[in-house]
Every structure is written in structure tokens, then in C-alpha cells.
Amino acid sequence: MNALGLSLIMKMGCFCSREIVYINNVRYIIKEKLGEGGFSTIDLVENVATKKCFAVKRIICHGVDDQKIALQEIEYCKKLKHPNIIELIDSTFKGSADIVVNATSEVFMVLPFYRRGTLFDYLDNRSINKDYLSVSEIVRMFIDICSAVKYMHDFKPEALAHRDLKTANICLTDGLSPILMDLGSVAPAKVQVCGSQDAQKLQDLAAERCSMPYRAPELFNVKSFCVIDERTDIWSLGCLLYAMCYFKSPFDAVYERGDSVALAVISGKINFPEDTPYSQETRDLILFMLNENSTARPFIDDVIEKVDEYIRVLDNKV
């Protein structure tokens, strides 16, 4: 069937009944669209047999390179087993797997549905009335996020980096436990850059896969001869903790104004809002991670140790 015929049937289906998708012989009804990104869409679906709801991530692949990236995401989802990393329930591949320049295929991933949405949604709702999170709530969620990141950074046989840690990539359970999702940007943590061609390739990949307000300085202007490692995630964790305190990344305002995020990030200057309930110790913890010098930036074990120290300081103040 050609693309036009399929498109027509899909449109007719919208008038006659809800769209049905089959994944490994399991039938799901698509109830609504949950989100859409540059590479995929996420739909809320219901298993026809069990009536249980799931999220289905549908990745459109335009050629073999896209297919490899999508299938790599599935492999990482299968390998990474941690209570704070999203579980892959099922997956399938539909379409041509042949190496054809204009071949189009689809990858489907069945994931748990989190009705609370993402940390981004949670913070956005609270920002309306400047309803700041308590320090205890922030620390509880942040230490779980760090645990998931440590699991990836310690992964064997090769350390992995997420490369796109941000509030929109963290789901929340009913009990507000964070679940790290969207493993499409996951890659081996250590990258040896040997020459300008390697540098440009990594820089282009970062521009495509790593969200600008959370992207580490070394990924904006990759040096021709350097080593990029898992500490790109530590920078993103600093931006993430900042957002948990102040509702947005330290560079979101720059991005929204249309100014150069790259220049703002590379400058290393972090501005903190006034009249907030957070102490200097909180700001120091954020700054500990936001070191623009990647070789001086801490590793995840250092961050967890610093968080433990931060908790002890707060306990002594009570």
C-alpha cells in the first residue's frame, strides 16, 4: 500500500473509530497524544484485552541511520535495569530494514504510563503561584536521580552517559518518585576526539540530541583534540537541581529571549533569583556541578557525597 492510501485510511479511521495499533500481536487503542518531539511521538494507549493504559513511543525512521539509532535506544532500555530508569514493556519494528536511502520505517516502544506527567509539568504548575518545593522534597527526588545517573556511569563493560538530562525527561510516579526516561541520547560516556572532523561530528550530534539549556559547555564548542566523558551529565544535573529550586534551568531565560545560550553557558556566570527559600548551601551545591571546566567538574560519586554533606549541614541547622 502506498503512503497516500495509508494516510487516507488513517484519516478515515479518525472519523469512524479510534486508531488501533498492534505491537507483537497485542492490540492497543490510541486514546490521545501525550507529546511530540523532533524524532518521535508519544501516545496514551489502552490494551484492549486488559484495559490497562500505557505510553507508546513511535519513532519514524527515514533511512538506515535512523533505524540504527532507534533500535539502539531499545537495546539500552533492555540493558538498563534500575528503579529510577524507565522500563521497556514491549517493542517492535515495522517497515523496511533494508539499506534504502529513502526507506521509511517505524519503531514502537511500549512504556509505563505516568499520569502525573513529567518533572517539567510538575514544576511548571507550581511556578504559577511560586509554590517552591521544600528542601526535603528536592533532596529526596534529586538523590534518586543521582542514583540512576550513577548506575549508568558505573555501567559495565562500558560507562554510559545520558547526554540529555532535563526536567522534561523525568517522569513522576504517583508517589513523586523520579523516573529517568528518553534513552535516545544515551551513548558511551567517554569519547576520544581526534581532529576537527571528530569534533564537528560530536558537536553536530550534541546540537541534535542535547537540549540547549541543559547542554554542557564542552559540547557547544568541541575542541579538536580532547576527551569528552560522563561529566557532561554532571553539568546537566546542576541545571536540573537549579530548575527544581527555581522552576527553570539557569539558561532557559537566555534561550527564551533568543540570546546566545552558548555564550551564556561558556561564560560560567550563574544568576540566582532573589527572595527564594533556599540557602547559600543550596546555591553552593548547584555551583559545585556547574563548573565550566569539564576536567575540574566532579564525578557522580563526588556529587552524591556532596549531597550527603549538604543534608548533614541542613540537619545541624534544624
Concise synopsis of the structure shown:
With 318 residues, this protein is α+β, with helices and mostly antiparallel strands. Helices cover 41% and strands 21% of the residues.
Description:
This protein has 318 residues and is α+β, with helices and mostly antiparallel strands. It has 2 domains: 13-112, Phosphorylase Kinase, domain 1 (2-Layer Sandwich), CATH 3.30.200; 119-317, Orthogonal Bundle (Transferase(Phosphotransferase), domain 1), CATH 1.10.510. The protein is 41% helix and 21% strand. The protein contains 10 helices and 12 strands. The strands form 4 sheets. A 6-stranded antiparallel sheet has the order 1-2-3-4-6-5. Strands 7-10 form a two-stranded antiparallel ribbon. Strands 8-9 form a two-stranded antiparallel ribbon. Strand 1 and strand 2 form a beta hairpin. Helix 6 (231-246) runs antiparallel to helix 9 (280-289) and helix 9 runs antiparallel to helix 10. The longest helix has 19 residues, at 135-153. It starts with a helix and ends with a helix. This is non-specific serine/threonine protein kinase. It catalyses: L-seryl-[protein] + ATP = O-phospho-L-seryl-[protein] + ADP + H(+); L-threonyl-[protein] + ATP = O-phospho-L-threonyl-[protein] + ADP + H(+). Pfam families: Pkinase.
Ends apart, CA distance between termini:
69 Å
Rg calculated over all Cα atoms: 21 Å
What percent of the residues sit in helical stretches (DSSP H or I)?
40-55%
Largest sheet: 6 strands, antiparallel
Low-confidence segments: 1-16
Strand arrangement across the biggest beta sheet: 1-2-3-4-6-5
Number of strands: 12
Shape: globular
Tally of separate domains? 2
SSE string, helices as H and strands as E: HEEEEHEEHHEEEEEHEHHHHH
If classified by CATH, what would the architecture of the largest domain be? Orthogonal Bundle
What structural category arises from helix and sheet content?
alpha+beta
CATH topology of the largest domain: Transferase(Phosphotransferase), domain 1
Mean pLDDT reading: 90
Strand content: 15-25%
CATH superfamily of the largest domain: Transferase(Phosphotransferase) domain 1
* CATH class membership of the largest domain: Mainly Alpha
Number of helical runs? 10
